[in-house]
Predict the structure.
Amino acid sequence: MTAEITAGDIYQFIDDFAPFGSAMGFDNPGLLVGSVSATVETAVLSLDITPAVVHEAVQLGAQLIVSHHPVIFHPLKRLDSESVPYLLAKHGIAAICAHTNLDMALGGVNSCLAEQLQLQNVRMLAQYEASGLPEALMGETARPYTPREFAEFVKAALRCDGLRYTDGCREITRVGLCSGGGAELVYNAAQAGCQAFVTGESKHNILLDAETMGITLVDAGHFYTEDVVILPLLDRLSHRFPGIRFVKSEQMHSPAKYL
């Protein structure tokens, strides 16, 4: 008889390569809904857990959702019947959320982003002091790019609906990156001799600074710089737990629309 796989088994597997204890201090990753003893036969993977993703999981008969962003981040003061934690509990679906621990892990979000951008000689750009793990990465491009060419390459590589970029007015051969909201690390990229920096969110003042420093800052959107981890994570889980059906959510998408 094949042994049953539990949410705890999957949690432990993720913890082995992306330790939950290595997450940044503000974060709240882990098994946030459900029990370690919950048996899993079908699991959905999604960048976020939204009500639509929960309903999708219900339709698929899933017992678990593995997400990047935590389904519970701030202390709950009210539990609305249409809220995601309530819906998960109502339908008996567990939730494992691997956030900044997965961002910084080898083979995690930033690693997957670097691979998608075809960077070579990938190495640490900025270190998270509490753990010594790489908060941002850098590497060399497969060929030289003009700023516009590089922005177009990123758009195609990440399948973005659109993006913003600054024109650093220099040829690009070295790129720094931090998935999601890592625009403030563009200063580290400038100090390391990068001509470009890819991230998912950027404020006006940082865009101005990037332009002044001669950095082509590519703001490709939070979703697109992080969703790159979902299929590799699915493959990794499927290889370790071949008896479980892992499904990438079709409901999860970038909420931003472009004109």
The mean pLDDT is 97. The first helix runs from residue 7 to 17. The CA atoms of residues 128 and 135 lie 5 Å apart. The two ends are 55 Å apart (CA to CA).
